[in-house]
Amino acid sequence: MLRALALFAHRMLSRKRLTARLVRLRLSLPARSGAMMSILLAQPLHAATAPCNVAPRLNLDLPDLYTISGLAVATLLISTLIVLNLRKKSIISNTSKALEETEARYRLLFEHSPVALLEEDLSTVKTFLDQLQAQGETDLLRYFADNPESLARCAAMVRIIDANRTALSLYGAAAPGSLGQLTSVLPTDQLLQFKKELLGLIRDGRSEIVLANRTLNGDPLTVERRAVVAAGFEQSWRKVFVTIIDITEQVRLRNENKAFEKKLQQTQKLEAIGSLAGGIAHDFNNILAPIMGRAELMLIENTDNPQLREHCRGIVDAAKRARDLVKQILTFSRQVDQEISPVSLTDIIQEVIGLVRPTLPATIEIEYDLADQCPLVMADATQLHQVIMNLVTNAFHAMEDQGGRLCFHLKTVTLGREEAAELSIGPGIYLQLRIGDTGHGMDKATMGKIFEPYFSTKPRGKGTGLGLAVVLGILRGYGGEIRVESEIGRGTTFILYFPVVELAAARQSAAYDPQQPLPRGTEHILLVDDEKSIADVTTGMLERLGYKVTVRISSYDALEAFRSLSDRIDLLIADLTMPQMTGLQLYREIKKIRPDIKVIVCTGFSEQLDDGSAHSMGIEGFLNKPVVLSDLARCVRSVLDS
């Protein structure tokens, strides 16, 4: 400003010299022109200073006039500069105040945000990356793959400048200074994820990754990390804002959902196999029924031929084993009634040991530790034999080449809430049966598949892959569970849990003496079965027992026959599964004609009907195919006499 005033004064002096020249010029002008110039030059000053009633003076000193004008202009300029300076100060002050308010709002949002926020300094990392690129390293992905130590160095270079309250709470830090370095919360096995973040910042200036962090206490923490370079720091990375979202619980639930989905798929497989088994069982029973029935009729008709009777007994025994196999398949699919009663698991194990001991080679030893006073379990004895025999067979195949030791250990355990939850069963008292071998063992991948239907590690011809699937189905049907422990080269142990029953022993059904003659009768029976071979053999059985039989292959024909013979029919025996009209539909139609008629329903497989539901519907008798002559005789006589 002083320099401007000095320049202005210099110009005023120059104007004084110019004014003197103008005065000399005026003296040379005519009088009128000179007078007019004097008036024009002097009028502003005298008009401002002279009284109102006095005429203005026209003889002013011209140099004084210019001096005063210069000072006025200088004053005006100085005032303008002062005003501009004040305005500039006001703008700066307002801007500073706005910045302070913005900073305060940012700090407030930063500190109180429910999302964990970090402010990081990656300037050292950026310098290192720029040096690599200057040296010709264009493929950083390959470079970090070849030089993992450089990636670890980059992670160690990251500085955490600030962290809000949520971030401190998330990582278990008392103050932002506790989170000085990223490596304090970044496990070494997550460096590959950190590499993705660096490449994202180079390419887009932002990145979004999911990585496994840890708290300062070392607790696992899975987070979604979103980083973005702050505006104005794209070249230096001196300020990078990071958002941390805790997804630990989400990941845990996602993993649980995957486990549940896997179990659901396993259940769906079992259901599909069960449906297939039901259809096969129905057809297989229709094949077995005439075989077994014809053999029993031959036994009755050839009392004087011992050799033929021996052959027939072999046929009957084979047919019964086939029938039991069908029952096991249906049990696997949970589509057949089980003869549940209180059973001593100790007795079952001892029976199995006595059965398998002579068949095992001398290279395999049997050790067992069985408590004498173990509580009972509610189960089917045949199924328990099947479960234990399946596991013993697997152990034998595992030790067949090199021998080993087969161990049984039975004890009573009490499972608390947490232990039971891990086993997916309810808390309570269980019998724990451990069946172990010292065979070749299994890896984890194999253990994850052994309960799948048709999965087998045995050579062709030595297994079907249904054994452990059947075991699992039986145990879960009883409310129990099975677990497996195995290690390659150190053997396998199956751990079975059976819920203990604390009730009194179930009432035993009346036993029949096989030496007693079969009950007979003379009543009239209407027999309906769409399989002619079954209808023929059942007719032969009933006639051998003394009954009069009317046979129909179609349910419609049976209904017409009953309409014409309703007053003479004493009993209806109908197959459940028939085309056009099922056994239940035929039963309802016949009940409309004659409500007091007695009915027996036969089936090899049904999801709709069992012995209990048949009685609740008013059906007096229920027979499972293939029907044995003794069962048929007793059931018919029991229904007719009821």
Describe the structure.
The chain is an alpha/beta fold. The chain folds into four domains: 2-84, no CATH class; 113-246, 2-Layer Sandwich (Beta-Lactamase); 341-499, Histidine kinase-like ATPase, C-terminal domain (Heat Shock Protein 90, 2-Layer Sandwich), CATH 3.30.565; 524-641, Response regulator (Rossmann fold). 52% of the residues lie in helices and 18% in strands. It contains 20 helices and 17 strands. The protein has a five-stranded antiparallel beta sheet. Helix 16 links the parallel strand 13 (524-528) and strand 14. Helix 17 (555-565) runs parallel beside helix 18 (583-593). The termini are far apart.
Topology (SSEs and partners):
Blueprint: H1 2-27, H2 31-49, H3 62-112, E1 116-121, H4 123-134, H5 140-146, H6 148-157, E2 159-163, H7 165-171, H8 191-204, E3 206-214, E4 220-229, E5 240-246, H9 248-301, H10 306-332, E6 341-343, H11 345-356, E7 364-370, E8 377-379, H12 381-399, E9 404-415, H13 417-423, E10 428-437, H14 444-447, H15 467-477, E11 481-487, E12 491-499, E13 524-528, H16 532-544, E14 548-552, H17 555-565, E15 571-575, H18 583-593, E16 598-603, H19 611-616, E17 621-624, H20 629-641
- Mean model confidence by pLDDT: 79
End-to-end distance: 130 Å
**Strand order within the widest beta sheet:** 2-1-5-4-3
CATH fold-level topology of the largest domain: Heat Shock Protein 90
Helix content: 40-55%
Radius of gyration from the alpha-carbon trace, in angstroms: 52 Å
Question: Which stretches are poorly predicted, pLDDT < 50 over at least 5 residues?
Answer: 25-60, 461-465, 503-513
Structural class estimated from helices and strands: alpha/beta
CATH architecture of the largest domain: 2-Layer Sandwich
β-sheet strand percentage: 15-25%
Shape: elongated
Give the full name of the CATH homologous superfamily of the largest domain: Histidine kinase-like ATPase, C-terminal domain
Give a count of the beta strands, DSSP E runs of length 2 or more. Answer: 17
Largest sheet: 5 strands, antiparallel
Q: How many domains make up the coordinates?
A: 4
Output the number of helix runs. 20
CATH class of the largest domain: Alpha Beta
